[in-house]
Amino acid sequence: MKKMKRGLMLLLLLIIAVSMIYAGGEQDKTDARPKTDNIVVGFSCAGMGNSWRMFLKANFDAEVAKHPEISKVYFTNADEKPEKQISDIDDLLAKGVDLLIIQPSLGEAIVPAVERAFETGIPVLIFDGTVPTDMQTAYVGQDMKQLGANYAKALIDMIGTEGKIIMLSGIAGQMSAELRLEGGREVFADYPGIEILDTQYTGWSIPKAKEVMESFLQTYPQIDGIWADSGLMSFPALETMKDAGKTLIPSTGDHLNGYAKFLVANDVPGYIEPYSTQQAAWALVEGLKAVKGEKLDKIIYRKPEQYPFEKIREIVDMSLSDWWWLGDDQIPAEFLPKID
């Protein structure tokens, strides 16, 4: 009987020990320890289809070079395909990254992959597009809805409280585009004299923006203003108007140099507020803090400068490529992209 009791006691102790080991393993999985060196970074990029993305990667690489504690960076390009981004994220996790930075292609579609990443215990930083889940460490970037509202307010300042306008947005369903569009619409809703003639997605594509604008000019005899969330749309839209012999109208956009050059060369009112290509670098800086044990706010916004037309005259550089991004070139020359 004593031997049986002793055997049962040993078995119970063994079960408790195994349970403690298992529990400890689970805690390690979901509660990564701070790390100060030999940090491996994963960057899941939505796509590399234009010069804005090229500058995004350049600013990220320049920031990486400032941090000797980073030993390895893995970069993936999802080509704007959510299914590829899900696979990319899983591959980055399999490589054992200590920090994951994600630029979402379509935020809702990649929720499961983001949540899997977060469950491993590593910091997961999102930028340039929201992902609708609380299972992320932080969102770093700009207030996209406010940016869209600022474009709308600036356009109203230029055309007045009455007029017919068009809206040109980026990729349908991508939250960085949808939130800017929502912010603009909310402002225009307060002005019953502003009529939104049409809204079109152009994928931040120059040829697509020209095609859309050609259609607008055939459909609408009067257009008083262009709300666009990027110079990648307002610049080709204005060029299309000029080629058609139309009177140029006020517009909005970001810090694309070609847009700024066109406004100044043609003396047509415009408004620029950068949607910065430094956002991946900002996410890296904050993510490294988290890897080292610092607690981050869930939302970390940075505010860019605003450039009304008189200021645009000061910042434009007529000698640089149309596809240059003003102000985001303050990095060592070896990192700057080659853009004609």
Give an overview of the whole structure.
With 340 residues, this protein is an alpha/beta fold. The protein has 11 helices and 11 strands. A 6-stranded parallel β-sheet has the order 2-1-3-4-5-11, sandwiched between helices. Helix 2 packs parallel to helix 10, helix 5 (144-159) packs across helix 6 (175-188) and helix 7 (206-219) crosses helix 8. The longest helix has 29 residues, at 2-30. The protein starts with a helix and ends in a 25-residue tail after the last helix. The relative contact order is 0.14. The model is unreliable at 1-31 (pLDDT under 50).
List keywords for this structure.
11 helices; globular; six-stranded parallel β-sheet; disordered N terminus; alpha/beta; 340 residues
Summarize the structure.
With 340 residues, the protein is an alpha/beta fold. It contains eleven helices and eleven strands.
Order of helices and strands: HEHEHEHEEHEHEHEHEHEHEH
The largest sheet is: 6 strands, parallel
Coarse morphology: globular
Please list the strands of the largest sheet in the order they lie side by side: 2-1-3-4-5-11
Mean pLDDT: 90
Q: Give the number of helices.
A: 11
Based on DSSP secondary structure assignment, what is the total number of beta strands? 11
Portion of residues in beta strands equals 15-25%
Measured distance between first and last alpha carbons: 89 Å
Radius of gyration: 25 Å
Give the % helix. 40-55%
Oligomeric state as shown: single chain
Which structural class fits the helix and strand makeup? alpha/beta
Poorly predicted ranges = 1-31
